[in-house]
Design goal:
With about 425 residues, the chain is an alpha+beta fold. It is built from 14 helices and 15 strands.
């Protein structure tokens, strides 16, 4: 399998976690102090999580060990006693309980903490016990319940208070500058409260204005366009049906990615194009080609499982993007292109960490036109893939280089007729 050389630029530019780790440290210490001094009663979803942990000796041991296995040395020792800020699973649960009704605030271009749960788990999920526990379906069921509860708040009007013009507001001058071209590109109503956005999620799934990001050559079926506003993460050729994705850096295993779908053999030996979505950008997906939706497959998976090759790091999930295509919660949309030289292809939307909700706005049998909306990530962005059969002789454009930002509907490649 041949790949482009990977870069860490996606972790730095994604905007989900601050580049400066001290920002996370300060936030986490402050949150720990808050929950230590004011012990709020657990909401039902946290009570059930606690009951689950304490009712199974194996699960309890793993949750205890993933904290005790964090080294008591820099950079992991962040409190006065030389211990990690999050010292045990009860502290973890109290922190989860405290953020269920908090919407992310904007702090700076490089320091918006949109993954608070990831920040809480950054050290323990990289330990051997953490690697084991976050892969378990029963554990992921409780994280799904937790994220759904938080998602309910982020979709409610109560979360819109962070959409303001003051310090930390997503409509502040600093935030608008960081998002670049917001008032020109996105639908908004500046005369209404919160510029017309009903909730945090409504803001993050905002739509482009008509005429923004047009398809460059709508009648040229040879062209494949970018389905997302995203940065190139990797391009891999001759991808195998089976590969040791948990042992090889950014190895793609089609059987695992596509959850053993009947179409897996058709893509064996083909190409995977993977790109990441920024926290500050656009989070809807669009059809890369014109054609027919052949199938849609929602695949349940993990939320905080990081690659065994990645150690303890606030950027563990960002550094595991190839691995996550095989294990994380995701949706695969199969499209039969109108151009037979492209033929069957697949779009994969990967829900990662807090970004676990993938909504599809088309259905099986629908005909789609290149550039038409097909779905979205809720509560932010994540990573996506286009998967091509080996018969699809796609030639990528010169802009397809690792780290390059590619606009929605920008041409990423073409096939000869």
């Amino acid at each position: 399998m041949r790949e482009l050389n990977l870069s860490t630029s996606s972790e730095l530019q994604g905007g989900w976690m601050p580049q400066d780790p001290t920002v996370v440290d300060r936030w986490l210490r402050k949150k720990v102090q808050q929950v230590d001094t004011k012990d709020e009663p657990f909401v039902e979803v946290i009570r059930q999580f606690q009951k689950f942990i304490e009712s199974d000796a194996t699960i309890l041991t793993l949750f205890q060990q993933m904290f005790t296995q964090v080294p008591a040395m820099p950079p992991y020792d962040k409190d006065t006693w030389g211990k990690p800020s999050v010292r045990d699973y009860m502290t973890m649960l109290r922190l989860f309980n405290s953020i269920l009704t908090e919407a992310p605030v904007f702090t700076s271009k490089h320091a918006s903490l949109a993954f608070p749960i990831n920040a809480i788990l950054s050290w323990p999920m990289g330990t051997p016990a953490g690697k084991a526990v976050f892969y378990l379906p029963s554990v992921n069921e409780h994280f799904r319940n937790l994220l759904n509860e938080r998602g309910n708040f982020l979709s409610s009007p109560a979360s819109a208070h962070v959409l303001n013009h003051g310090p930390g507001g997503w409509l502040s001058e600093e935030a608008l500058q960081a998002m670049g071209g917001f008032t020109d590109d996105f639908i908004h109503e500046p005369t209404k409260p919160h510029w017309g956005f009903k909730s945090w999620d409504d803001f993050f799934t905002r739509r482009f204005k008509d005429g923004v990001r047009p398809v460059p050559s709508p009648h040229d079926s040879r062209i494949v366009v970018s389905p997302c506003e995203s940065g190139v993460y990797n391009v891999a050729h001759n991808v195998h049906e089976h590969d040791l994705f948990w042992l090889k850096e950014n190895a793609y295993s089609l059987v695992d990615m596509l959850a053993n779908h009947e179409f897996v053999p058709k893509f064996s030996g083909g190409v995977v194009y993977q790109a990441w979505l920024s926290a500050l950008s656009y989070h809807r997906w669009h059809a890369p080609v014109s054609g027919t939706i052949v199938d849609i497959d929602f695949v349940p998976g993990t939320y905080y499982s990081s690659s065994p090759l990645v150690g303890m790091s606030p950027l563990a999930l960002r550094n595991s993007q190839g691995y996550l295509t095989a294990v994380a919660t995701r949706v695969n949309i199969y499209i039969e292109s109108d151009n037979p030289n492209i033929g069957l292809m697949c779009f994969m939307g990967v829900g990662m960490a807090e970004v676990s909700s993938c909504e599809v706005t088309v259905k099986k049998g629908d005909r789609v036109v290149q550039g038409q909306e097909t779905g979205m990530f809720h509560f932010g962005g994540s990573t996506s893939c286009l998967i091509f059969r080996p018969e699809t002789k796609i030639q990528f454009t010169d802009t397809v280089k690792v780290g390059n930002l590619i606009k929605l509907n920008e041409s990423i490649g073409f096939v000869d007729t």
